[in-house]
Write a structure and sequence with these properties.
Blueprint lengths: L23 H31 L1 H4 L7 H32 L2 H19 L5 H4 L2 H29 L7 H29 L10 H4 L4 H4 L1 H12 L6 H8 L7 H8 L1 H29 L13 H29 L1 H17 L1 H4 L7 H19 L2 H7 L6 H18 L1 H12 L1 H21 L12
Helix pairs in contact: 1-3, 1-4, 1-6, 1-7, 1-10, 3-4, 3-6, 3-19, 3-20, 4-6, 4-10, 6-7, 6-19, 7-14, 7-18, 13-17, 13-19, 13-20, 13-21, 14-15, 14-17, 15-17, 15-21, 20-21
Length: 460
């Protein structure tokens, strides 16, 4: 079996060993392909996240004794996708490191898109009983498989074709798919609930009868566009070099655990606070904002008003990503991630005051959410550069994908569930402390990891 070098022990290369340089035209195609692909994938994922709060607790589960129980049931299926994501990273990572980035990305996009489309066709609990949540859970699991293979492939497509000294900036484009997908999914839900006159608690109106299905069914059109774009790009020069030098390994998974276990742990812990922050300020915060004030588990804000607030604040996410990626190319990955983590710790402490049910205003909530989104952009932006940079070329798809998606279990899958339970028992300040603890763990991993700004992708 061919051995791989760790980031510390680099292989010696000569000029003729270096991969060919990509042209500006090739890089433009890659930027478009990686951005539109991850936008579609995250659109599918966020459509489910929004429906998990506003639709599924009422239509896909038996009536519970409280709104919190119903929400926790829905969040349980929401978390299934994050359990599936590491499996998806293993399956798609195997083929991505064996046959190439391009073909594997097509398979990941199809898996995610088909599952999302089927969700739009599922019968409800009133129609088929227990089969409704079972089928919903199965499709959610398939969504997780697809996204588990999508992100790392898109990140590699960008970083392995980047111009010298601009790798974090190139890696920005798949990261922008996250806020773009969020904007599309929640914007469409906002249009539908406004057009169909939906209010929270109404389970018989047009939106709950058929309107909620439209965002899921529309995924088919978006996937068709994404596939057409993805088929136009070439394989990355770095992976072509792996093939030419016969550096493929028969089992990327076993090779990662044997030779690159340290970056695997580092990457997972670096990413975990990023996931926790995002799903607290989006999924949990949505449930808290529109939650039942009489039961003491929410603020009682109308669903439409809160969606508008989220859609405005998502621009903070879009701003943070390019700022962080520019700084990561200029000053390095570690300083940007470390200082952002310090700011996240301060943000978690602020929950006690900014989310007080007795003193909140829509303005204060908007400021709170916007700051959270900016921080999310700053911490998320450089991730598609630093995670691939930690791993050797012939196991990079598998290694970066496992790190990214195991972190999704530790950070995202359980975050809405834990935050909902903490808020019900101790109030929103406990949710902030939870964010602080997770961020401290990630900060320690960032300081433990090497600086990869000057790492050449073909040398690892």
């Amino acid at each position: 079996m061919t051995t791989v070098a760790t980031p510390v022990q680099k292989q010696q290369t000569t000029p003729q060993d270096a991969p060919r340089h990509t042209t500006p035209e090739e890089r433009r195609r890659v930027r478009f392909a990686s951005t539109i692909g991850t936008t579609i994938e995250f659109y599918d994922f966020y459509a489910y996240a929004t429906a998990a709060v506003a639709v599924f607790p009422f239509l896909f589960f038996p009536k519970a004794e409280s709104s919190t129980v119903a929400l926790l049931q829905s969040f349980a299926t929401f978390g299934l996708a994050f359990i599936a994501r590491p499996l998806g990273s293993v399956v798609f990572g195997h083929f991505g490191d064996r046959i190439g980035r391009k073909a594997t990305l097509v398979g990941a996009l199809l898996t995610m898109g088909i599952a999302t489309f089927i969700i739009g066709l599922l019968p409800t609990y009133a129609q088929v009983g227990i089969w409704a949540p079972a089928l919903l859970a199965l499709m959610r699991f398939c969504q997780g498989l697809g996204l588990g293979g999508e992100w790392s492939g898109a990140a590699l497509l960008s970083t392995e074709t980047a111009a010298k000294g601009r790798r974090a900036w190139a890696a920005m484009w798949p990261q922008l798919g996250a806020p773009f997908g969020f904007l599309l999914a929640n914007g469409l839900f906002l249009i539908l609930v406004t057009w169909l006159g939906h209010t929270r608690g109404d389970v018989e109106g047009a939106f709950m009868t058929w309107g909620w299905r439209i965002p899921f069914l529309m995924s088919a059109v978006m996937v068709a566009v994404g596939l057409w774009v993805r088929l136009q790009v070439e394989e990355t020069p770095v992976f072509q070099q792996v093939l030419e030098n016969d550096q493929k390994v028969s089992s990327p998974l076993s090779e990662v655990f044997a030779k690159a276990w340290r970056p695997l742990v580092q990457g997972t812990l670096i990413m975990v606070s990023c996931y926790t922050l995002f799903y607290i300020v989006t999924t949990w915060f949505l449930s808290y904002g529109i939650g039942n004030a009489a039961e003491g588990v929410g603020l009682g804000i109308p669903y439409v008003d809160f969606l508008k607030l989220q859609l405005i604040c998502i621009f903070g996410f879009m701003i943070g990503i390019p700022v962080a990626c520019h700084l990561a190319d200029t000053h390095g990955r570690r300083p940007v991630l470390a200082w952002t983590s310090v700011a996240m710790i301060a943000y978690g402490v602020s929950f006690r005051w900014l989310l007080n049910p007795e003193t909140f205003t829509m303005v204060s909530l908007g400021i709170f959410l916007f700051i959270g989104m900016v921080l999310m952009g700053l911490i998320f932006g450089p991730m598609s550069a630093i995670l691939p940079e930690l791993f050797p070329s012939n196991v990079r798809y598998t290694g970066s994908g496992i790190s990214y998606n195991v972190a999704s279990i530790l950070g995202a899958a359980i975050a809405p569930f834990i935050a909902t339970a903490l808020n019900a028992s101790y109030g929103p300040q406990a949710v902030g402390i939870y964010l602080v603890i997770v961020t401290v763990i990630s900060l320690a991993a960032i300081l433990w990891s090497p600086e990869t700004k000057h790492t050449e992708m073909h040398e690892v």
